[in-house]
Amino acid sequence: EATRPSTKLNIKILYCSKVVMASTPDITARPTPCLQKGVELYPYQTKVIEWMKARGKANPIYNRGISGGMVCLKMGLGKTFAALEHSLRSQSVKKELCPTLIVASKTVLYEWKNQGIEKFYQNIKALYFHKDFLGDYINHITAAEILEYNIVITTYDQCLSASRKHDAHKLVCEYGQEGIHKDKVIAIHVRKKPPYKPAVKGPVNLYQIPWNRIFLDESPRIANPKTYTFKAVMALYGQHKWCLTGTVFRNCDNDIWSQLRFCGYNTITTARLWRRWYFKDQNLQQYMYVSNYTEAKVTMPEKIEHIHYVDMDPDQKLTYQALLVETQDLYERMLMKFISYASVLAMFTRLRQVCISPYLIVAKSKNGIIQEGIDKALIQTKVDKWIADSEGSAGIDSPKIKKIIEIIQSVPKGEKIVIFSMFVKCLELVEKAIQTDLSNVSYEFLDGRCTGQERVDILTNFKEDPDVTVLLVHYKVGGEGINLPEGNHVLCIEPWWSPAVHNQGIARCWRRGQKKPVHVYWVITRKTIEQPILKMCANKDQLADFYLYGEEYNPQPTGLTKYEMQKLLGIAATM
Predict the structure, then answer these.
(1) What angle do CA 383, 405, 534 make, to 5 degrees?
(2) Kind of pairing between the strands at 238-245 and 68-73
(3) Please, what is the end-to-end C-alpha distance for the chain in angstroms?
(4) Under a CB-based contact definition with an 8 Å cutoff, are residues 208 and 194 in contact?
(5) Handedness of CA 391, 395, 397, 403 (dihedral sign)
(6) Which of 17, 66, 147, 512 has its CA 20 to 30 A from that of 24?
(7) Residue 105 lies in a domain
(8) Which domain covers residue 187, as residue numbers?
(9) Helices 499-506 and 530-549: crossing angle, nearest 10°?
(10) Predicted TM-score (pTM) of this structure
């Protein structure tokens, strides 16, 4: 049961354009944090903090509206520590009335607690603004109580829930008034000031408090400006706004725009008007602090990549080809505007699942168009009984799953492997294969169904128990923000559309503090869509280097546009 946070204040907060408080809180009630004994900043972290300090003094009027910026440090270089130290130093010097808000994923929230605040600081007052910590009291906490803390950490999902419940996103969304744009979001503005009304109780306080600064951890989470998550964080008010990430770029040029927009960028105010060359023309590099391992003078362990190619067996190939034909048919129907882009994209996902194990497409799709295409393909190939057997060659005995088992067996005694996939059902198949073929191997399984404390226990068990040698992880839960140097083998079951997803996953093990060489395994199914997806990822890596390091870039398709869909289908059909 959560303990009710202590409160010594009983004040009412009123808001106006300059955020005047009806009664000034006694911030001397806050403790003065200090570093734990023996904790020191690395020289490159000191440079980051000095840059952040200078950016904090800059007038946004003369900086395209930006008050803050983007801290782009490679994974493991200590973005968490730098952000905390900058915040606490500023609070100490300026005697700030409002705390710092940090937004992270649920899994990473625990990392901020265990590997950030408690590891580096003593005498710090941090509020973990989540039901896992506050219980039902999260619905009763007041702004007055929140203001007692140095740091407040919450999750993207918590912001999203509060925004939807209280319509906070409508404070920044501009809606069309007529024609085809009527009642549709046509622009999302930067939050200028909190609404003029007293603070209320509960999660809505995320949108009522004028935070001194806001940090978005792993900020590419808001890369797509069409998502509710982007709207929810844009509705947060902060005097200074920061993005923290090791992989600033995921899919397309708009990724950069979305994160700069959160920081206050106001020159190009809609994503559709953003162009790649604006980044250099407007000198936007000055709002990003970029550092890699070489610049930070950090010696990284050796990273060895292994690419294993597997061939489909006859029934799998038959299923894949039949599904490919159905996907091509859906693509043609999309061009004629009979079906949506999303339906074709969903069928692409089914193609990719067949590359792993055809059994993965057995589960019924909620999309009737997709299910119709799958059923048609299965009827034509007469493999409906074969594909339903999870223990046969459509399931745990598929070529890719068998290769994964071989790789697990090859891991030397005393070493551990982390296995990533974007498909929970795929991880469950690997789990079943381990139980069947490697009954002596102990493993852990981490996905979105695990509660906060369960996630902590699973990660702790993998790290500390020498008998647990395998960790099965869903990318969205364990692919970023956690430290797993205990594992020095990483296996990516399938290529994803964005190389940032792979890079983040690999960086859980290949990071500062790793003492062993790290082996990265790719298992690719030949003559399938997986091969051109890898090429698309290489193009995206080049585009990321263009933004981060100013390297030359020969424009190549990076997003899954209608044209790129056609190209992928054509490549896949002729291999």
Answers:
(1) 75
(2) parallel
(3) 59
(4) yes
(5) negative
(6) 66
(7) yes
(8) 27-291
(9) 80
(10) 0.84
